[in-house]
Task: inverse folding
């Protein structure tokens, strides 16, 4: 490599960016520790504290807590008052870091991040072999992190925004509809719909047996086991027909053969039935997605979505990926026989498509 053509100011600017990225990366394990040890909750519930006071509240080592607080203050996650030596978790940070019922709760993402590092050797092999990496073979933190991370957005938007944006669907759900939740994972979306629409019946399907086991446990915990059942099945072979609504939440782009899944869904719908496709927010061109949200989704797509699609569908898979965009999704649906496809809703992180045969 030659350095003759290097622009020193551009190099310095990039190094500044790299230092910020490294600081965030080095701090990620401390965020997870803050959650696991109850340090954020201790500040949120007990108010500002010295390191000794927070350690006493949480049953932790004061010297370790002091260093942790220094990192958190340097990153702006907590504030520090030099005169009193006290640290505070502002209410805006508290809803993201200490309230697991908040729509802004972000700590599930840090569990997902932990899985990336645990899976590094498997991912190296996936890059080299071209064999992919199935969802079921990832580190367990991916499964728990995905449940927590997506639950916040689904709780906020699913029943109040997304379903009402579909033509006539809420009325069917209120009267009693048959619903299939394809790629349901731990069943968060299925259970939220069952809680909102007790007159309807729901089946959640997923190819990951471990996820279905957890979904059944979660349904029992939520006391919705009666109108909900969970089954191990692929998106292109799940049982039943005559569904008024089929949903696929943040999973369609992971499929090895999304066209086959779309055809099966169309055949499983009742006359007048609806497919709701919830996908990561993305533009249709790479340049549309070169932003912080796109950066996150491209990372997840590289490490989770595309490897699973390759493992599921083989080398011929289209492997849509998490940044497929509306045009690519629409093309698959229309080829599968859906004559009406429209954007029904969106958030900064999600795109919601309504499709009808």
Result:
């Amino acid at each position: 490599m030659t350095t003759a053509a290097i622009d020193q100011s551009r190099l310095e600017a990039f190094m500044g960016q790299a230092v910020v990225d490294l600081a965030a990366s080095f701090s990620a394990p401390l965020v997870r520790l803050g959650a696991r040890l109850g340090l954020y909750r201790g500040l949120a519930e007990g108010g500002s504290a010295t390191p000794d006071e927070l350690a006493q509240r949480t049953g932790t080592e004061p010297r370790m807590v002091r260093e942790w607080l220094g990192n958190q203050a340097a990153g702006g996650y907590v504030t520090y008052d030099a005169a009193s030596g006290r640290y505070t978790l502002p209410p805006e940070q508290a809803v993201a870091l200490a309230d697991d019922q908040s729509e802004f709760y972000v700590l599930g993402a840090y569990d997902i991040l932990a899985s990336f590092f645990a899976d590094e050797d498997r991912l190296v092999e996936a890059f080299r072999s071209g064999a992919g990496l199935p969802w079921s073979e990832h580190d367990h933190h991916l499964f728990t992190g995905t449940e927590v991370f997506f639950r916040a957005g689904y709780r906020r938007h699913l029943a109040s925004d997304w379903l009402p944006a579909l033509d006539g669907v809420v009325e069917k759900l209120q009267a009693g509809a048959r619903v299939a939740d394809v790629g349901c994972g731990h069943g968060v979306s299925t259970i939220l719909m069952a809680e909102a629409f007790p007159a309807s019946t729901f089946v959640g399907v997923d190819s990951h047996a471990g996820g279905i086991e957890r979904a059944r446990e979660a349904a029992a915990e939520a006391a919705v086991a009666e109108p909900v059942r969970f089954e191990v099945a692929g998106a292109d072979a799940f049982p039943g027909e005559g569904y008024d609504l089929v949903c696929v939440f943040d999973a369609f782009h992971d499929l090895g053969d999304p066209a086959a899944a779309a055809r099966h869904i169309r055949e499983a719908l009742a006359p007048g039935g609806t497919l709701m496709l919830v996908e990561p927010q993305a533009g249709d061109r790479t340049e549309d997605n070169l932003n912080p949200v796109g950066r996150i989704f491209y990372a997840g797509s590289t490490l989770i979505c595309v490897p699973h699609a390759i493992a599921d569908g083989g080398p011929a898979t289209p492997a849509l990926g998490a940044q497929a965009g509306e045009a690519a999704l629409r093309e698959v649906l229309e080829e599968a026989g859906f004559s009406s496809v429209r954007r029904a809703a969106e958030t900064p992180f999600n795109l919601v498509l309504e499709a009808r045969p």
